[in-house]
Amino acid sequence: MPTPTKGPRIGGGPAHERLILANLAQSLFEHDQITTTQAKAKRLRPLAERLITFAKRGDLPARRKVMSVVKDKGVVHRLFVEVAPDMADREGGYTRITKIAPRKGDNAPMCVIELVREPVSAKPKRAVVTEAESATKRAAKDEEAAAPEAAEEETTEVAAEESTEAPAEETTEADESTGSDSAEADDKA
Question: Which PROSITE patterns does this entry report, sorted A to Z (predicted)?
Fold first, then answer.
């Protein structure tokens, strides 16, 4: 036997609650969204999602199960033909409850419960990586890390060669301008 829900029932007794929820589900499937109190919406959500799951199956026993709750054949047909194909990719979470301003007369908390008909945005699934693939990826990362260091070493070597050549060129220019001075310096050395 299923465990009873916590809190007071909607309506007077269990039969009245089942009728209220069946009427709410029928209205939800007919209009795609309804405005109701938060307590009713929270009680309606599991029932509506279960009925949508039956509709996704699409076979005759599922249709009969839904017909035992929702009595209008036109609404059941719409649920199986229009709503269920929209929910085919979705693995649950068929309804959305949005809180709105409280009701004016008795300040009851109100909300809108609606069917989520948008397509599911597919999240990329993590690929299972084998040890060989992870070793290959690590080696590629190590090579990439080593490449900038090697490039830095090459640039420092080139800069060092240029710096050693530059003073030699300056001395040759100085030698040309003062030919006798440089010859004397060479003799002294």
Answer: RIBOSOMAL_L17 (PS01167)
Q: Is 57 a domain residue?
A: yes
Residue 175 lies in a domain: no
Give the tens place of pLDDT for each residue, 121-142: 766 667 666 777 777 777 777 7
- Distances in Å between the Cα of 10 and the Cα atoms of 3, 43, 63, 68, 113 are 16, 9, 26, 20, 17
Amino acid at 46: P
Nearest to 11 by CA among 1, 3, 23, 2: 23
Q: How many Å apart are CA 146 and CA 181, to the nearest integer?
A: 50
Residue 67 has pLDDT above 80, yes or no: yes
Domain of residue 69 covers: 14-116
Residue 145 — left, alpha, or beta (φ > 0 → left; ψ -120 to 50 → alpha)?
A: alpha
Domain tally for the chain? 1
CA 1 to chain centre: 37
The answer to the question of residue 75 being in a domain is: yes
Question: With contact defined as beta carbons under 8 Å apart, do 44 and 25 qualify?
Answer: yes
CATH number at residue 99: 3.90.1030.10
Task: Give the helix/strand (H/E) hosting 96.
Answer: strand 95-99
